[in-house]
Amino acid sequence: MLFTAVALLAGCSGTAHTAAANTTTKPAAPSRSTSPSPAASTATSTAQLSSDQSGIQKAVATWVAAIIEGNPAQLCSVTGQLATATSPAQASSPQLCAGGGPQEVVTAWRPRFTPEHLVGHPTVRVSQVPVFGNVASVPAREVDVNGQSLHAIMVSHGLQANATDDTIYTTKINGSWLVTGFLVPQG
Questions:
Q1: What percentage of residues in the chain have a pLDDT greater than 70?
Q2: Which domains does the chain have, with CATH numbers?
Q3: Beta strand 176-186 pairing with 2-6
Q4: What backbone torsions phi and psi does residue 181 show, to the nearest 5 degrees?
């Protein structure tokens, strides 16, 4: 089976650069209690997981809704660029968003993401998914658009019915969850 990795902002020109401050930090002096209590650690982990899930769900739901509604600016607001050998992972820059890439993504995927007989704005819900550090993968079967899985909608528009690897990838960049990839089987 062949796969297509969708370039989220294909056709964009220019390169965004970020400058990191050149600072030196002094390590904090250790406190008397150097490890949190198990209860505090569990509460922090639970709160962080809840925050991560919420961020992932919001980014994916916004991204899918932006495609369906034909809104490239909204799409770009939740799209990030993965790190490369020459630049760190980063949110899409205004220059990148101003290029034609977001419109190309919307134009290419809107017919495949839109449920039949959609009236008004789509209602998009995203299931909780496992988080691995700063990345999470959201299978299209776990994205609900007006009561139908995104996978089922794409199948109704020609995706292979047995395809199981249609996945939206998210990455936490500078504290925010952003969509950084979309893999769809071709065949």
A1: 74
A2: 45-186 (3.10.450)
A3: antiparallel
A4: -175, 160
Token readout for 47 is 């709160």
3-class DSSP state of 12: coil
* 141-187 pLDDT, tens digit each: 999 999 999 999 999 998 887 766 789 999 999 999 999 999 887 65
Measured between alpha carbons, how far is 113 from 108 in angstroms, rounded to an integer?
10
Q: Which residue is associated with the tokens 């809704």?
A: 65
Q: How many Å apart are CA 83 and CA 6, to the nearest integer?
A: 16
CA distance 2 to 48: 36
In angstroms, the CA 116 to CA 30 distance is 60
Beta bridge partners of 81: 90
pTM metric for this prediction:
0.77
Closest CA to 73 of 83, 63, 61, 58: 63
Place of tokens 């980063």: 90
pLDDT tens-digit series, residues 48-78: 778 899 999 999 999 999 999 999 999 999 9
